[in-house]
Amino acid sequence: MTKIAFIFPGQGSQTVGMGQEFVENTAESKAFYESADKALGFELSKLMLEGPAEELTLTYHAQPALLTTGVMVAEKIRTAGITPHYVAGHSLGEYGALVIAGVLSFEDAVSVVHKRGLYMNEAVPAGQGAMAAILGMELNDLHAVTEKVTTAGDAVQVANVNCPGQIVISGTKEGVEKASVAAKEAGAKRAIPLVVSGPFHSELMRPSSEKLRATLDGITLSAPQIPVIGNVMANELQDLSAIQQELVEQVYSAVQWEASVREMIANGVDVFIECGPGKVLSGLVKKIDRTAATYCVYDEASLEAVIEASKEWTINA
């Protein structure tokens, strides 16, 4: 039996024009963008479709933009008759997964992630935090490096465990720079600075998590209708209080993406469909398990490719 997971990308996948073909061709898709505008009180859709890119990249714009496109695409896929057995998202993408699972309404999710972006932006002024991808180093060895740098006075920690050989670190600008140098000296193949607006998934984000908790207290959560694999512990989220706590902790905790993918595979998932712009998560899945089938849906042609492929799947065996 074919088991399908919908996966939702995080910040960095946003592009000007995201979802444009769907929005221009179907009223249902356009309605998602209009609903986002209404929920936020400004024209997010114009930023998404026309830019400028610098504005779209701001964390409090990128987060609701990616959520909107991801959920819209996922609904297009479901309308075509393809339903996920599991959902998961990378960082911000987890909110898209929760919408598709029925935990959050789309309107509430758009509002929450916009505020999440504002809180994260406020937590650390621009230029004071940084992130870097460390390639070709074992997790335990990198933990040793970041702990040593942090103990010496410059905070840095593991932020994303993405796939074998790719781990992201996050912290103060100085901490990330020093840890990058130390990682290469300890055997890492490369240390690549990331173009981001803050030290996401680090302890420096903890102040934003408490503001987020207060916001989530005013939101109604419903029991998941589809299993959701969470970022923090890489296991299924079921209890509503645990889901809220997951979203709070997720802001300053490492994204366990590799473990999340392995958890879904262990539960029989063999097809992963990335919902939204870019192919980042599909690439990570392939590095985790080459046998997994991956698809990216972002326009009519890619949707048709998935629909055509699904004819060979045994979904209801």
Automatic annotation (TrEMBL):
Its EC number is 2.3.1.39. Pfam families: Acyl_transf_1 (PF00698). One of its GO terms (molecular function) is [acyl-carrier-protein] S-malonyltransferase activity. It catalyses: holo-[ACP] + malonyl-CoA = malonyl-[ACP] + CoA. Keywords: Acyltransferase, Transferase. Residues 7-298 form the Malonyl-CoA:ACP transacylase (MAT) domain. The keyword Acyltransferase applies. InterPro entries: Ac_transferase_dom_sf (IPR001227), Acyl_transferase_dom (IPR014043), Acyl_Trfase/lysoPLipase (IPR016035), Mal-CoA-ACP_Trans/PKS_FabD (IPR050858), Malonyl_CoA-ACP_transAc (IPR024925), Malonyl_CoA-ACP_transAc_FabD (IPR004410), Malonyl_transacylase_ACP-bd (IPR016036). SMART domains: PKS_AT (SM00827). Belongs to the fabD family. This is Malonyl CoA-acyl carrier protein transacylase. It comes from Lysinibacillus parviboronicapiens.
